[in-house]
Specification:
about 160 residues, alpha/beta, globular, 3 helices, Rossmann fold, 7 strands, single chain
Length: about 160
C-alpha cells in the first residue's frame, strides 16, 4: 500500500486501489479529518499497523523533502503544529510559503515509521543541512531535526544541498 498526496505523480504501475490521495475538494480542516479517518479505517482493517511503542500508525516508509527553512511535511519552524502530539493528520491555514492551506502528517506519525528517507536538493537548502548535519557552532532546532523514525533514517543529498558539510 502507498499513501501519496494528490499532487504526486509517479510512473510506477501502482493499482489505483492502493493509492490514498487527500481529498482536495474539502476545506483544509475537513480534508485533514477525512484523511485521518481514512488512515484509521486502514488500521482497523489491519492494512496499517500501530507502533507498539507510540500507538501511532506505523508506515513502512515515509518519503520526505525539506525546505530552505528546515520545514518538513508542512511542519514549519516556530509553528505550533510542530508540537502536535495527539492528531495523526492535521492542517495549516497560515503557511509561511504558498500554498497557505496545507494538510500534513504529524511528527508522531512520521516518527512511528519503520524507515524515513529525506531527499534534499538545491543550494538554498545547504544552510539548513549544515545546521542539522554539520558541525554548526550555533545549531538551530529546525523541524527536520525532529525526524526520528523508530526504524532507520536515510538522507539523500545532491552536491548543492551538501555543499556546506
Amino acid at each position: 500500500m502507498l499513501v501519496l498526496p494528490s499532487w504526486f505523480s509517479w510512473q510506477v504501475p501502482i493499482p489505483p486501489g492502493n493509492v490514498y490521495a487527500i481529498n482536495d475538494t474539502l476545506s483544509a480542516e475537513e480534508a485533514a479529518d477525512d484523511y485521518e479517518t481514512r488512515i484509521r479505517e486502514l488500521v482497523d482493517k489491519n492494512l496499517i499497523t500501530l507502533s507498539p511503542s507510540s500507538g501511532f500508525p506505523k508506515f513502512d516508509l515515509v518519503l520526505l523533502g525539506m525546505g530552505p527553512d528546515g520545514h518538513v511535511a508542512s511542519l514549519f519552524p516556530g509553528h505550533p503544529l510542530v508540537q502536535e502530539n495527539k492528531r495523526w493528520v492535521t492542517f495549516i491555514k497560515d503557511s509561511p510559503k504558498p500554498p497557505p492551506e496545507r494538510i500534513t502528517l504529524t511528527f508522531p506519525v512520521i516518527n512511528a515509521s519503520a524507515y524515513a528517507a529525506l531527499v534534499v536538493t538545491g543550494k538554498k537548502e545547504a544552510d539548513a543541512i549544515h545546521s542539522v548535519l554539520g558541525k554548526s557552532e550555533n545549531p538551530i532546532k529546525l523541524p527536520v531535526a525532529l525526524v526520528s523514525p523508530e526504524g532507520e533514517l536515510k538522507w539523500f543529498l545532491d552536491k548543492d544541498a551538501a555543499s556546506k558539510l
